[in-house]
Structure formats: C-alpha cells, structure tokens
Amino acid sequence: MAVSFHVGIVPNQPLEEFLNWVPFAEELGFEGVWVADSQSVFRDAFIALTLFASHTEKMKLATGVTNPVTRHPAVLANSFATLDEISGGRAVLGIGVGESAVQTLGLKPAGLKRLEEVTSVLRGLLAGETVRFEGREIRMTTPAAARVPIFFASSGPRSLQLAGRIADGVLFQVGSDPDLVRYVKRNIAIGARQAGRDPAEVRLFQRLACGVSEDRERVRQELKGYVAVAAGTVFGAVPKEDISKELWEDLRKMKEQYDYYRHASSEAKHTQFITDRILDAMAIAGTPEEAVPRFRELIDLGVEGFVLPMTTRDPKPILQILAEKVIVHFNA
C-alpha cells in the first residue's frame, strides 16, 4: 500500500516564516500541507493556504481543520472552490465540530447532526447545485471544477462512525498506540457498513505528533506543545474504557491545566504535565531507529497518510531527517 507523508501547521508565527520551509518540505517529498483554522489563536488558515498554493506545485492544500460554527457552509464552499481553482485541483476540505476556534469564543462545538447536514450542503454547493440550509435555498455561481475531498477530523466513536458513513476520509488523532488505531478502524467500519459502504473506501489519515532527531531528549521536549493538543483530544473523545487507567489519569491532570489561548505552544504551562507515558502514547518521538518500526506498525494497520504537525520555529532539520532516514523506508 502506498503511504504519504504530509506536514501540519498551526499558524502561530508570521506566515512568511512558513514560506521559508513549506516549499522545502515539498522538495523533500511531503505530499500535502494541512493548516489549522482557529481565528482567535492563529493567523488565517485560508490566507496561509493561498500563499502555499502560490509557492508549491504539487502539495495538497488542506484545512487541518475548519469547522461549521465559525464558518458558514456557503463561505466554506466558496473558499474551497477558489482554493481549488488557484491551485489546479489540490484542495482538500478538512472539517470537524470545532475545538479551540469555538472554545475561545465561548461557543459550543457543532453537533454531529449539524456536521452531517453541513457536509451535504458543502457537497451540493461545490457541485453547483441549489441546496436548502436552515430553511432557505442557497447556491453558488462559481462551483469547484472537480470534486473536493472531504475529510472529517474524528476521534470519538460516534464521529468516527459518521465519517464511515459519509466522509471521503478521516483525519484521526488518537496518538501512536496501535490499540487506539484499531479502535478507530473498528468504529469507521461500523459506520461504513451501516451505509452499505466498504470500509476500505474511507481513506485513513493520521494526525500524529512526531519529532525525530539524533538528539532524542531535545526533540521530545520540543514536541510537548503539540502532544498536549493530541492528549486533550484523546481525553475528550476516546471512551475511558479504551484507555489504560494510568494514561487516563495522566491525561486528566494535563487537561485540567489546559489553556486554549496557548493552544499547541511548547511554552504553555500545561506542557509541564506531559509525562513520558503521555508522550510515548501520543507521539513518535525519538531517534530515526526508534521511529521506523513504530511507523511500520501503523502502516500495517492500514494508515495510508500521516499528517505530522511542525510546531518548532525551524522544522527544516526534522523534515530532512524524516525524509532521509524514515520516509525513505516506506517509499522504496
């Protein structure tokens, strides 16, 4: 099975700084860039994706992820149709119920029923159809030239099952523990079969905190900012019975201290509560020799794409060592 590696971005720095390394990532063979959409915490995702479209040639351009609470579906459809047009068909629509984008506004995440409704509306608008939304007919005069894939950011059982029923793919974030990946697959398969789909139709992309370096301790420390994001997602979404008692307790203590205004920051105080147990369950962090068999195990479970968030100020060294000493083992 072919496997692809992508970079993930939380745009908490001036966008020009990302232009210093995103084209470099493409040169190294990374196949996509996924940008977090959180208006109160980060720079604007769609402006970032537009910049990346003009500075890359082949990379897929995705939100990682947007939501239907702060973005009206008509606005989302228009943004993705335009992004797809300017990039020559490289847009991918990553969407979830909303986390930091809605939490920082004092709003509630979208329910799964709303996400399902919005997905239908988005597909109709992007295809040039007139659709009904909130009791009104809406349409768009500039639809996408081709189908834009829709990936759900799903980690909880019901969300994974919904993705299995209607999504083109799933960008799941449950950490690096193979047992949790099996939990993901099990729930996607339930949803797919409910809809009469082959579970294999649903593409499996894993958003995974990853740091690889010969300086093992340094990279593990640097990774704690994003590991805290993943840990919070797992604590909030994965059933308690699917997590070991010791890990669940560590996650609980970290989540109690979590500051959404320091979302994904390696300098946040809550990173002090990232234990080695959390780090090893949520991430692949260490030397290349440690990383290769851990990726192999996940690929053998059916993961076909990895979105690796890059949260250090200069990720070039990590990207290069990933390309030359890790990814090379899976692209031969």
Number of continuous helical runs: 14
How much beta, percentage-wise? 15-25%
* Structural classification: alpha/beta
Separation of the first and last Cα atoms: 11 Å
Q: Could you characterize what this model shows?
A:
This protein has about 325 residues and is α/β, with parallel strands linked by helices. It has a single domain, classed as Luciferase-like domain (TIM Barrel), CATH 3.20.20.30. The chain contains 14 helices and twelve strands. The chain has helices at about 15-20, 20-30, 45-55, 75-85, 100-105, 110-125, 155-165, 180-195, 215-220, 225-235, 245-255, 275-280, 290-300, 315-325; strands spanning about 5-10, 30-35, 60-65, 90-95, 130-135, 135-140, 150-155, 170, 205, 210, 285, 305-310. An eight-stranded parallel β-barrel has the order 1-2-3-4-7-8-9-12, surrounded by four helices. A two-stranded antiparallel ribbon has the order 5-6. β5 (about 130-135) and β6 (about 135-140) form a beta hairpin. The termini are close together. The model has no long low-confidence stretch (mean pLDDT about 95).
